[in-house]
């Protein structure tokens, strides 16, 4: 059965570490797949903001993180104008936190050390269910379109001309929580090409999309599964040349990074943060300079329940659990 147009997935998801906080009894509220620390009375599939004022956060300094792709120093500069705008809208200092992995970013929000973040496609469900992430926007192009495709790439002269040629070779993934860097390609290779990791090909993990792309361009990896939005930005910055890599597979379009806040920030603060995203002027900004390379030019309102439906189906099809351990 082909999954290309409907469901993709992986066998496992990184589990959250346990948090030493008081928990809500299992029978006290509706929560769906959310951890027992959270409630979802309104049914939007994200943690409700606490009604008890003593459980709300109003930090003097807000910590912001962008999903760990490419050079963190590049993105600190890229987000600088937005962070200035965010400070004006919230009246608080904002610090850019350069996370090194999806797991580290999830743990930072789960433990209360991260307040505003962009989580990549594959790690969004785990961040929502285990860390109390409340996403509300994604980047979009001028016409309102959004998203990226998973590509399997190799280098010219590698001997890999089509997906079937991966048999007996190694394929670089990014991390187990990544949709395009692990989940989707694992399921596609199994369902559409009868290629199973460990049986038909060897898997290795690079940690990030740019590591995989650079690894293929420099012939350290014979092939890799990556998000093509990252590849396009790296080509635009002359990090690699377009002719150093070639694509042997392209998937359907997936939603891109989801941006949001920790569920337990004060409602007034959450409102100010949302206003900062939707009132930000992209024209001439450091954000436009970086993300115009992938044609993004605005923040588009979205809901996790609707926009991440296909990603949850990906996980369900592969028996992925969002349970925090």
From TrEMBL:
Alphabetically ordered keywords of this record: Signal
Does the record's keyword annotation contain Transferase? no
Where is the secretion signal located? 1-26
**Membrane spanning residue stretches:** none
InterPro entries associated with the record:
PhnD (IPR005770)
Family named by the database record: Belongs to the phosphate/phosphite/phosphonate binding protein family.
Q: What is this protein called?
A: Phosphate/phosphite/phosphonate ABC transporter substrate-binding protein
Tell me the classification of the organism that encodes this protein: Bacteria, Pseudomonadati, Pseudomonadota, Alphaproteobacteria, Rhodospirillales
């Amino acid at each position: 059965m082909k999954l290309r147009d409907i469901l993709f997935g992986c066998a496992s998801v990184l589990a959250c570490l346990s948090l030493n906080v008081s928990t809500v009894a299992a029978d006290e509220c509706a929560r769906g797949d959310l951890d027992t620390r959270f409630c979802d009375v309104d049914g939007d599939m994200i943690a409700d903001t606490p009604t008890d004022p003593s459980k709300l956060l109003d930090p003097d300094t807000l910590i912001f993180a962008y999903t760990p792709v490419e050079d963190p120093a590049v993105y600190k500069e890229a987000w600088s104008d937005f962070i200035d705008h965010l400070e004006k809208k919230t009246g608080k200092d904002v610090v850019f936190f350069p996370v090194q992995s999806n797991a580290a970013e999830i743990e930072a929000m789960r433990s209360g050390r991260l307040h505003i973040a962009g989580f990549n496609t594959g790690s969004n469900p785990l961040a929502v269910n285990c860390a109390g992430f409340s996403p509300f926007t994604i980047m979009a192009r001028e016409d309102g379109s959004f998203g990226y495709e998973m590509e399997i790439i190799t280098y010219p002269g590698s001997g890999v001309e089509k997906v079937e040629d991966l048999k007996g070779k190694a394929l670089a993934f990014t991390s187990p929580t990544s949709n395009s860097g692990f989940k989707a390609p694992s399921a596609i290779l199994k369902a559409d090409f009868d290629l199973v990791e460990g049986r038909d090909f060897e898997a290795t993990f690079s940690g990030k999309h740019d590591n995989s792309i650079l690894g293929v361009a420099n012939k350290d990896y014979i092939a890799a599964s990556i998000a093509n939005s990252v590849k396009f930005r790296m080509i635009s910055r002359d990090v690699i040349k377009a002719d150093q890599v070639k694509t042997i597979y392209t998937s359907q379009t997936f939603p891109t990074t989801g941006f949001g806040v920790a569920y337990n920030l004060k409602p007034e603060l959450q409102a100010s943060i949302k206003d900062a995203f939707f009132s930000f002027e992209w024209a001439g900004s450091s954000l436009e300079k970086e993300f115009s390379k992938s044609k993004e030019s605005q923040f588009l309102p979205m809901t996790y329940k609707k926009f991440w439906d296909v990603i949850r189906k990906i996980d369900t099809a592969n028996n992925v659990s969002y349970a925090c351990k």
